[in-house]
Design goal:
By secondary structure, the chain is of the alpha+beta class. The protein has one domain: Ribosomal Protein L22, Chain A (Alpha-Beta Complex). 41% of the residues lie in helices and 28% in strands. It contains 5 helices and 5 strands. The strands form 2 sheets. It has a 3-stranded antiparallel beta sheet with strand order 1-5-4. The protein has a two-stranded antiparallel sheet with strand order 2-3. Strand 2 and strand 3 form a beta hairpin. Helix 1 packs across helix 4. The longest helix is centred in the middle third of the chain and has 19 residues.
């Protein structure tokens, strides 16, 4: 197993709160599934902040940041039946990884967490 990239991001929830209240921001950053699931969670702010951090974290693991036609909505974070978060790997993400790292087989690992004041995400990209 070879690590191709790692990324981490942390968000101060208080600063994120103002952005999360704007519908245009939500529509620009989050996918349909993320928005739909956010309506069923107790702490919507932290839910959205963790996903924002995860998107940033993946862009860092890819080594591209948000440029070269990579947008926030291209990255979607879902949860499995047990609640574990994971990246939905879209064809666009597959193409970026294939082009950048010359591989079609890879694994993405995601860990997200939050406290009252902060949300954090950590990503590992490996083959």
């Amino acid at each position: 197993m070879k690590v191709l990239g790692i990324g981490v991001d942390i968000i101060q929830n208080k600063r994120f709160k103002l952005l999360a209240q704007k519908k245009i921001f939500i529509k620009r950053i989050y996918g349909k599934n993320e928005i739909r699931f956010s309506k069923n969670v107790k702490n919507k702010l932290n839910y959205l902040a963790k996903r924002f951090a995860a998107k940033e974290s993946l862009s860092k693991a890819l080594g591209t940041g948000f440029r070269k036609n990579l947008n926030y909505k291209d990255i979607e974070i879902l949860n499995d039946k047990l609640g574990k978060p994971y990246y939905y790997v879209s064809p666009k993400i597959k193409k970026i990884i294939n082009k950048r790292f010359k591989t079609k087989k890879f694994n993405l690992f995601l860990s997200i967490s939050d406290e009252k004041d902060y949300s954090v995400a950590f990503t590992i990209l490996q083959v």
